């Protein structure tokens, strides 16, 4: 135990011999800013400059944040606006004005919808609000916000952020004296930070685990954690966390009644808190230095420490500040409810509009379907009529074809009859012309003879012969008439 203590005191001597000097980069960054016109590049530079100047020139840092905010408003970049509100809230937290800090955190939340691209920022803002309530010792309300924060951190797949909020929740459970739960959460955070290679937050975990062992009265284990974290933070030149480690180590030494070592350790922590401008750290360190000097009977120094502690008490914990924070939270929740109600009304209107569109579309679809059914029915009726007409036409065609066939047959028959008649007539004509010509020629010949004949006997004989030929010709003509009559009867 003594060897470990001497090792720590030797290390403290090394810290004392090398006070850190913070060199600001803001001048070189400001020179770059004068030549930067691109909006995105300018925003990045302004944020770097503001972060650099927060410790050395807080008023100028705030002006840079306000310029970023103006750019976000002009470009209507809601993510940039909310991010800058969160940065300004963190700035006012650093200035120990929790009311202004909380106001800006809630302003950051107002413009953030629950969308995947906003989960990371929602995780940050809810964590900061939880931290403000934690500082006001409203641990249950702090846990409520940390639980919301953890949900968004997990949804954003940000392992580092999940580890960070688990660490903060562990500290709250420590403050509630729920040590087992606190150790469980802090060890979860430690494993995530180690897996993620985040040494800075791993050292947060180690320091906070040491505080739990300190409150449980296990000073040896606590000092081992504090010393490990202190050595690593000093190597990393992290003066804020080094001050925390020294302060916790000083508390442990005070409880072990190692008052000189505790005073020396706490004075080193106080020097670092002056460099980092952490009023909250300084406030707690002054309280323990006051207790150490009282126990050492150094009343004059104890009074000085106590006076400085009370001055910070007034500035850090202003009368009514916690009430103001609760009022801000209530206003935010009312605004959120109004926003939710407004969004619900808008959603209802949108739904009604969509329902109207759906109804109109349904009516149109029904009319269209009815029209199509009517067209289809008309088509079917026309098709049936057309089929009936086609059948009737086919029937008529068949009848016409039958008539044509019969007509052709009749024509052929009549043609044949006519041809037969013509043939018969030709035969009759030939036959009759030949048969009639012969007796006619006889008559004509006899008549010619009669003209020259003077003998009465010869004349009588010729007349008789002429009568016979005329009778023969008459008989032939009667036969022709009979045959023609028979043809007509056919």
Characterize the structure shown.
- It catalyses: ATP + protein L-histidine = ADP + protein N-phospho-L-histidine.
- Residues 425-480 form the Signal transduction histidine kinase dimerisation/phosphoacceptor domain.
- InterPro entries: HisK_dim/P_dom (IPR003661), HisK_dim/P_sf (IPR036097), TPR-like_helical_dom_sf (IPR011990), TPR_rpt (IPR019734).
- The protein has helices at residues 2-17, 26-34, 39-56, 58-75, 78-94, 98-110, 119-135, 139-155, 159-175, 179-196, 199-215, 219-235, 239-255, 259-276, 279-295, 299-316, 321-452, 456-489.
- It is mostly helical.
- It has a domain at 339-489.
- The termini are far apart.
Summary of the model, kept short:
Keywords: Coiled coil, Membrane, TPR repeat, Transmembrane, Transmembrane helix. The protein contains 18 helices and no strands.
Give a short account of the largest sheet: none
* Proportion of strand residues: under 5%
Structural class per helix/strand content? Answer: mainly alpha
The SSE order reads: HHHHHHHHHHHHHHHHHH
Q: What is the first-to-last residue Cα distance? A: 160 Å
